[in-house]
Structures are given as C-alpha cells and as structure tokens.
Amino acid sequence: MQSQSSICIVGNGAIGKTAALAFAQAGLSVTLLCADSANRNAADPATWDVRVYALNRVARDLLSSIKVWGAMEASRIAPVDAMSVYGDDKGRGGLSLDAYGARVEALAWIVEDRNLNMALDTALRFTPNIHIVTGRATQLAVVGDIARLTLNTGEVLDAALVIGADGGQSWVRGQCDIGIDYRSYHQRAIVANFECEQPHHGVAHQWFTSTDGIIALLPLPGQRVSLVWSAPEPLADTLMQESQQQLAQRLSVLPGHRLGQLNPLQPEVLKAFPLALIRPHAIVAPRVALIGDAAHVVHPLAGQGMNLGFADVATLLNTVTGRETSRDCGDERVLSRYARARKEDILLMQIATDGLERLFGANFEPVRIVRNLGLNLVNKLPVIKRRLISQALGKTF
Fold this sequence. Notes:
The chain is α+β, with helices and mostly antiparallel strands.
C-alpha cells in the first residue's frame, strides 16, 4: 500500500499530536505515524498523573488555537501564581517571582500528561485531513520532491515534508545523519505526587542544592503538589528504594518549606527518568524538520522542555503556512527559515539550563557564596525579574 499527504509526522507524543492537529486545521493533509495503537492514557480518573508539565503562554495559546486547551479537564489544571527559588544558603534569601508583579494572568499552568493527551486524542478523532497509521518506519529516503517512509508492514508513506517528533532518541534524526552533542547529567528526575497539610496558594517552590540536586514542588489543584527531584544517580537509587513517606520526610526539612506534612497520594506512584543534554547539529534536513525532544533535550530545572516543543510547532506552522505559493511544505528555503527562527530561542535555553545545572552543581565554597549572592541580588532588581518572567512565558513585555 502507498499513501501520500502534504505532511507526515513521526511520533505520537503530545508534541507530534499537536503538530498533526495544527497542520490539519490549517488545511493541509497530514499522516500521523504511531508506533502502537494502545491507549496509554486509560486510567482511573480519580488518580493523578505523576508526569506533569508547566506550560507557558505560548503553549496555552497554541493549544487554545486548535481547540484543545478548552477540551482538557479544567479542574485538573493548576495556575502557577508565584515561584520561590532557594539556594543552598540555609534558606537565607533567594528569588521570588509572581504573576501579579509581572501583570500577567499566571506564570505557568501545571497540566498532567494524561489530561493533555486525552484531549489531543479526542480532537484527532474528529479532525478531517488526518490519516493515522500504526507501524514502525524502517527506511527514510528523499526521492525528488518527495520524502518516502517505508514501514515494517510494507506500507509506503509519501509526503512533501516529514516531521520528526519521535523524542530524544529520534529515529528520524538518525536517518538524516544529523550528529548530536550529548552530555549525561548523571541524574534522574524522580517524580511523585503528595497531599500537603497547608495550602500552597499556587506557589511553585524550587531548591538548588550542591549535593542533592534540584528539587521542585509544583502546585496541583486542591492541597496537592507534584514533586520533580533531579537527583544525582546514587541518591536517585536510594530514593527509589525508600517509601514515599520517607521521601516526604526528606522534603519536609527543606529550607523555606511551608506546606506542612506531606502524604503520598494514593495509589503511591514513584517514577524516574534519566536526564541528559542533547544538542543536534541541525534541526532540518532535506524534506525533514525536527520538533520537540528530537530537536533538543534540556535539563528540566526550568520546566521549559515541553514549552520549547510547542514553540517549535507554532514556528513551523507559521513558516509553512506563510510560504510563497510557488514553494511546497518541504522546500529547502522554507525549512531554512524555520531553523533560523528557532536557533536563538533553543540556544538560549540550552545555555541557561546547562549553565545553571553546572553552577549549582559545583560544591565549592566561593562558588556557593557567589551564586547565593546572585540570587539575592536578582531578587532586588525588578527589571531583571520581569525579563526572567518574560523569557519563561515565551513573550516579550
């Protein structure tokens, strides 16, 4: 069998699904290649997903434009009204950011992976111009003005443009011989959810430590919080072997902790994800564009990985739909415009997240003193604080 479309998207995560909906709603024919047909989002609706994202204004606007934001369960989305950042100076000083001072609705919105994907899946079922194919691609070749994917089933998918949205270990990227710079952080992100004794008031808390990694407690609806602990591998092994009640006890002694007693949400779920920096040498190739983790993997300390991916989708969509009528979706100049438009944003986030991880990972007294003084200084400079918020929201004030 052989099918043809304007765009073929490889990867059925949230970024790939969003791209499929955005391009289809723009009037282009889309093929979405999924590795499997299993419903990974089916779960007891009373449980809370431990995989959450802090989505910014760019992500929300994009999801709203394709009518997905309003389709999510609103009662399971928590706005981040403020953020408190602590160094390793025993709770003295730090950095505080708030939406009111920045004159914005919220700094971010905490959304469960399951809530987002269920809304995307529903939208996919009712959107014309999308052909969903289940299978695994075994070959990618460019034949004239066509990119051709051959599947393990023998089916052939032709498209003017192939979009790689297949994650940090991207098969599409490998087929294009795009090299990468890889750095393991020798950390794992430990994620879990807790009930808190005291209300969180929409405040996200983050602790930078030199020995135990980076710890974040993000607000969930009600008196619940989501933990993201970027822990060094030996500590991560220990945390995964302990009970979640023991983990809660570790969190309760953090400087500035004001949430009272923490109790694991039932049923108890604890997961770990390895952390690394992945910088591809290019995000485009002939008839191919990369988005999401296929185009960049950054440290989660700023919570911007998914936001970078949604910005990729928005930029690629604007670039493709704004092209000259004489050029097709995969034209070399169109893809070059996309690469140029994303270069600065991606590079700045890579430098910022990697630099902060290195800075706060250094267990050297003079460095520790300087970085904590820096946090306190930034906290006293409203202009810089507004700039930080602007960057996080993905917009300029």
